[in-house]
């Protein structure tokens, strides 16, 4: 991976992504220089001007303006819908995406990693699993064999996803949840913290509890 990296998102996820890249450099893995951050709060009253000791360079438009300058970017934001929209917009400008894989993460044989993927410290992914585009697998999560983690999905710290599980696009599995083998989760579904999911989840559904039950959706 060559070039210079800019992280989109100057919140907690962005700072955590910076620490992954710094850990790679400390381990001698040749991670590119991180120039700084962009965030669409840039310039607003009270907004931060730096993150992790690095400057905020501007709003997300900054990446479009520098797409031809050898810049690589990482989407370090929580919202799956926002990640999808930003990916489509910025990729259309020719922007290239980096990956951030912590040196302590273990990826089994046959595992594939999509553009923009972020994998935190202590993660273990078993064999023949696909991590989709702009997915995040966070601290100490485990993902079993023959899984699919769909584009824009987030697997939170401490999650245990067992074998042959399929997550659609934009799925969020929250802290310390467990998903039993062979399940399918529809796109943009959510599994609440500490939940144990024993059945498939449909598109946009929210499950919570042990065993996890489908929760009512808020009326718009």
List keywords for this structure.
single chain, 220 residues, alpha/beta, Rossmann fold, UDP N-Acetylglucosamine Acyltransferase, domain 1, eight-stranded mixed sheet, six-stranded mixed sheet, 3 helices, 25 strands, 29% strand
Description:
The protein is of the alpha/beta class. It has 2 domains: 4-98, Rossmann fold; 99-207, Hexapeptide repeat proteins (UDP N-Acetylglucosamine Acyltransferase, domain 1). 15% of the residues lie in helices and 29% in strands. It contains 3 helices and 25 strands. The chain has helices at residues 12-26, 61-65, 80-91, and strands spanning 4-8, 34-38, 50-51, 54-58, 71-75, 96-97, 100-101, 106-107, 112-113, 118-119, 124-125, 130-131, 136-137, 142-143, 148-149, 154-155, 160-161, 166-167, 172-173, 178-179, 184-185, 190-191, 196-197, 206-208, 213-214. The strands form 4 sheets. An 8-stranded mixed beta sheet has the order 7-10-13-16-19-22-24-25, with helices on one face. The protein has a 6-stranded mixed beta sheet with strand order 3-4-2-1-5-6, sandwiched between helices. Helix 3 links the parallel strand 5 (71-75) and strand 6. The longest helix is centred in the N-terminal third of the chain and has 15 residues, at 12-26. It is globular and about 45 Å long. The termini are far apart. 41% of the residues are buried. The model has no long low-confidence stretch (mean pLDDT 94).
